[in-house]
């Protein structure tokens, strides 16, 4: 649930960034609202990730889930599962991606339309996810550093020195995307291996943001037309 919600917040952040220039007039009509909304999305997404990847023993998150799965691999069965690979996992799936790329080249499938899949047993997938988790160590360090010293203030690590604050490395939206993808892939893998079903990855109506932007656009144009009409009447 936390991964799904974090992914939905990330979708909104990406949508806003992508459409910012084309909607600048509408955004400038209520700038305080959009600034606060954007910041709320960002910090909500960030704190959900901080909770998901918290390593504390009393926190239910990815760490605890990985341990539970590692201790109960028999629940995953012995059949092979076809699971999506990402280009960003090239270090782990190098040979498999290379083989599938060669096939895509023969079929004339362009890069953006290529979907990679890897067949492995549940136990093999647990090992793969362990490798992927280890490959994200630097991002996770930044996540915890930013949480403890800047955002959450939940430890003795809080930093007040302005110069030191500037030196703290913050995670980017690309980093958040990587962490969310891992959380979603891992939970999807477990759900499919045990229950043979997939969970949703974002709220079904999250794209309502497009309607909101369009509604504000129409309202902004109508407001300008009324202002113009009143100006001409004076």
Q: Which secondary structure elements does this structure contain, and how are they paired or packed?
A:
Blueprint: H1 2-19, H2 24-29, H3 31-52, H4 62-71, E1 81-85, H5 90-107, E2 116-120, H6 122-135, H7 137-151, H8 162-167, H9 173-195, H10 208-233
Antiparallel strand pairs: 1-2
How would you briefly describe this protein structure?
The protein is mostly helical. It has helices spanning 2-19, 24-29, 31-52, 62-71, 90-107, 122-135, 137-151, 162-167, 173-195, 208-233; strands at residues 81-85, 116-120.
Structure description:
- It contains ten helices and two strands.
- With about 230 residues, it is mainly alpha-helical.
- The chain has one domain (about 1-80, about 120-234).
- Strands 1-2 form a two-stranded antiparallel sheet.
- Helix 3 (about 30-50) crosses helix 7 (about 135-150), helix 3 (about 30-50) crosses helix 9 and helix 6 (about 120-135) runs antiparallel to helix 9.
- The chain starts with a helix and ends with a helix.
